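This part of the workshop introduces the protein records we will be handling. Getting from the letters to the tokens is the skill we practise here. The record below serves as our worked example for the rest of this section.

…
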Amino acid sequence: MIDDSPPQPARRWYDFCHLSVNLYFSVFHSYRVLTGWRMPATGPVLILANHASFLDPPVIGGALPRHIFYLARRTLFRNAMFRRLIRSVNAIPVDQENNGVGGLKASVEVLRLGEPLLVFPEGTRSPSGEMGPFMPGVHLILKKCPEAMVLPVGVSGAHEALSMGRKLPTFSPMFLPPRKGALCVSVGRPLPGSVLAAMPRQDAVERMTGMVRAELERARAVNRSRSAV
């Protein structure tokens, strides 16, 4: 049985992983982070992002200065070795066949502890790389924890680097002109969760969708301009 409670972070190990993924993505994927706005340095933060690749969690984690927690589907925890790895970097299992009740409970617990939490509101990876509709559960998280700040993040290039069904990534080395496989992350303006929690569910979901889509398009524009050089 897998524990649904938030893992206890080993700070030095997380810092090592943070440094390692930044180095890897910078060297092999021409990694670039756009940070026009700062992530809140303290307090609960609900990070919302598009999801097109298994690379998304480390790509986003590497772009943010704080130790983040994130939700991952329970099937990823079946392999004992991989389970230990992702738990060590703060992954929380979500049972998608049970309406995500365990994941919701753990999400609220993480935020109430004042920690940052990454969720992918689409619920699964996009097979095409295009952003899909957001699920309403993210609004329920904010209803239960309106004190959280909401941070929109857009990731461009992850689908091209490692799309669904592929086992090996496409590289875009830093010493060559950026091409397919180059990664860009755009971090947007934080919004108080209380604003979204007070809105009707559908309106809030549409607002959050627009926030993330704007950052995705910003990241895509940078990748297009880099590949055109």
